[in-house]
Amino acid sequence: MGRGRPLWHDFGCARHLWHNGGLSKSLGGGPKLRKWYGAPDLLPKDGSISEENASSEEDEVRDAVLVTDGDNEIGQMVILSLIIKRARIKALVKDKRVAMEAFGTYVEPIAGDTKDRSLLKKALSGVRAVICPNEGFISDIESWKGLQHVILLSQLSVYRGSSGVQAIVTANARKLAEQDESLVMASGVPYTIIRAGLLVNAPGGNQGFNFKEGCASQGKLSKEDAAFICVEALDTVPQTGLIFEVVNGEDKVMDWKECFATLIEKSEL
User: Fold this and answer.
1) N or C, which end of the chain is more exposed by having fewer CB within 10 Å?
2) Which regions in the chain score pLDDT beneath 70?
3) Measured distance CA(246)–CA(262) in Å, rounded
4) How many CB atoms lie within 10 A of CB 231?
5) Which pLDDT value is given to residue 136?
C-alpha cells in the first residue's frame, strides 16, 4: 500500500508469530517480540510497577493508547500493530499474566471489572486515545475527560443488514453496537467510528478497499485490515467526529492520512 507497505511487512512477521507462536495462547510470543524489538524482560509476576517508577497523575503525560478488549482476536491484532508503531500501549484484559506472557513489557495490562470507576481511572491515566475493537466495552464516559480521540470498530451496518434467524442471533450485539456508537457520539471527545463489513479471517494487506456508503452491509473486511485501519486512524483526529464504512475492494490506499482527510471532507459536505 505505498507508504504503508513497510508496516505491512512487519505486521506479516507479527502475524507469523501469531499463528506459529500462538500469542493468544502464550506460547512464546512475548519472548519473540522482546527479542524482535530489544525490549527488557517481563514485569514482576504480580504485574506491578515499583512506586519509584510510577508517575503521579499530575506529572503523567498523555501519550498512551488504550485498547478496551485486549483478549479479543482483533484487539490483539490492534496491539500487534501498535507495537510495530512503537506506541505506548495499555489494554483491558481478563488475565494480566497471560497478557504479559504474550506481549511482554510492550503492553501494560489492566484486569478487573470494567464498570469499576477506580479501574477505569487507572486504565485511562496517561491515555491520549482509546481503540474499541469490540462492542460492549464502552461505559462511564464521564471518565473520558482529557481524551483526544476515541476509535470504535463497529459492526452495526452488518447487524442492521441481517435478516431472519441471523437477525435474531445478532440482536443483542446490535443493541450493544448501537449503544456504543451513541455513547461515543455523545461523549464530546473527537471520534472515529469505523463501520466495517463482515469481519473475516483473511491475510491483511493483500486487498484494496471500498469506502462507499452502504458497502458494509454486504461486503467483508479482513480482521487484520480492520485492526490496521484502527491504528492508522490514530494519526488523523477529526475536529468533532468521523463515521465511515469500509470493506475490502479494489481501491488501493497509498497514503492513509490523505485517505482519512478525504473521508472527513466528504462527511462534512
Assistant:
1) C
2) 1-60, 139-140
3) 14
4) 24
5) 77
| Residue tagged 519473540 (cell numbers) | 32
Q: Distance (Å, rounded) from C-alpha 4 to C-alpha 233?
A: 13
Alpha-carbon gap, residue 84 to 33, rounded angstroms: 10
Report pLDDT for 34: 44
For residues 99 and 88, is the Cβ–Cβ distance under 8 A? no
Which residue type sits at 212? K
Residue 137's pLDDT is 75
Q: Which residues, in sequence order, are CB contacts of 68 under 8 Å at separation 6+? A: 75, 91, 92, 114, 130, 131, 132, 133, 134, 137, 138
Residue type, 216: A
Alpha carbon distance, N-terminus to C-terminus of the chain? 27
Q: What is the pTM of this model?
A: 0.80
Rounded-to-integer distance, Cα 138 and Cα 130, Å = 10
The number of beta carbons lying within 10 Å of the beta carbon of residue 226 is: 24
Say how far apart CA 67 and CA 72 lie, in whole Å. Answer: 10
Length of the chain: 269
Rounded Cα distance, 163 and 145, in Å? 39
CA–CA gap between residue 114 and residue 16 (Å, rounded): 31
- Dihedral sign (CA 166, 172, 175, 180): negative
Q: Amino acid letter at 196? A: A
How much is the pLDDT for 68?
Answer: 92
